[in-house]
Amino acid sequence: MASSSAFEQDRIDRRYIAAALRLSRKHLGLTSTNPAVGTLIVRDDGNGPVIIGRGVTAIGGRPHAEAEALAEAGELARGATAYVTLEPCAHHGRTPPCANALVTAGIVRVVGAAADPDPRVSGKGYAILRSAGIEVKEGVLAREAADQLAGYMNRSMRKRPEVILKLALSADGMIGRRGEGQIGITGEIARRQVHVMRAECDAILIGIGTAISDDPELTVRLPGMRSRSPARIVLDRLARLPATSKLARSASDVPVLVAACSESPAANKAELERAGVKLLATETYGGRVALPELLEDLGNQGMSRIIVEGGADTARAFLDEGMVDRIALFYGPEAIGSDGIAAPIGRDHIPAGFELVREARYGEDSFAEWIREI
């Protein structure tokens, strides 16, 4: 009977952690330097568990998810269980640590998913709970939580954002056709999935070649979600982005950052700044923007997730530098042929250290995603 009861409790714990993870995606990409965490307060008065409080890290990073969930639960939190997707914080700011707030609220059990790599928190949050007599269960769906929190984990441990390389490939492994700019490779359903990915990131990054040849807008164009459009970043060593481009003309609406080096013409930079484009002073290595330094600067600005969308040279540069953490490949059903631009990566040549974590079909298109351990 005890074994059956333990099995049932484990099933319940996994169910509610999974629900908290789904909830936390609501603000993924919107919480600045803090991770997007989900918290559920669950109470069982003998008729089965019931959610009495829900919380997700607020836009901008405060309040934290635990505080939001406890506020909704009120006095009912006393004697309840808290399900958290990340170890509760243990460091003092202007408000008490979340671990202490759980103790004060009378929570009797905490089930956690991912461990927090922040040295101010790691293990300390759970220690506060245990010292107060709270039962703690760690590591429930830890892998799934770490996958979702990879941006925060990367910035905490590598001092830079998570880099997601997204490419759309034809059936014969091409990402475009020479001299034709942007062409459609995948269908509408797959393109909508890309917009969801964009909405969960802090920035979209492309090279200047793609910016000039395709003149993209790089916004989130799903109904009601334009406000979720992340910043747009262009690797543009000589500040060649035209002030008449869609990116520059929309800079006052959605931020545009141009990574330009000191040798770029002053007139070019001045024209872009007048259009509302923000310039990122970057270093040069081998005639290119120095990517490690750029990513470190973006991490210092609070960015945790960046999606690299093109083109082939930019993708190859990130791969060559070992700066890609997640690979997302969409495959269309049609071949492009001998005049195509070959992708720098494909299903049959994924770099060492990456693991396939998910596959899907979107209409006639297929999708596969790989990550590497942090």
TrEMBL record:
UniProt catalytic activity: 2,5-diamino-6-hydroxy-4-(5-phosphoribosylamino)-pyrimidine + H2O + H(+) = 5-amino-6-(5-phospho-D-ribosylamino)uracil + NH4(+); 5-amino-6-(5-phospho-D-ribitylamino)uracil + NADP(+) = 5-amino-6-(5-phospho-D-ribosylamino)uracil + NADPH + H(+)
Residues the record marks as active site: E66 (proton donor)
InterPro entries: APOBEC/CMP_deaminase_Zn-bd (IPR016192), CMP_dCMP_dom (IPR002125), Cytidine_deaminase-like (IPR016193), DHFR-like_dom_sf (IPR024072), Eubact_RibD (IPR004794), RibDG_C (IPR002734), Riboflavin_Biosynth_HTPR (IPR050765)
CMP/dCMP-type deaminase domain location: 11-136
Cofactor(s) recorded in Swiss-Prot or TrEMBL: Zn(2+)
Gene3D superfamilies xrefs: Cytidine Deaminase, domain 2, Dihydrofolate Reductase, subunit A
Coiled coil: none
Binding site for Zn(2+): H64, C89, C98
Family matches, as Pfam families: dCMP_cyt_deam_1, RibD_C
PANTHER family, alphabetized: 2,5-DIAMINO-6-RIBOSYLAMINO-4(3H)-PYRIMIDINONE 5'-PHOSPHATE REDUCTASE (PTHR38011:SF7), DIHYDROFOLATE REDUCTASE FAMILY PROTEIN (AFU_ORTHOLOGUE AFUA_8G06820) (PTHR38011)
Protein function: Converts 2,5-diamino-6-(ribosylamino)-4(3h)-pyrimidinone 5'-phosphate into 5-amino-6-(ribosylamino)-2,4(1h,3h)-pyrimidinedione 5'-phosphate.
Protein name as annotated: Riboflavin biosynthesis protein RibD
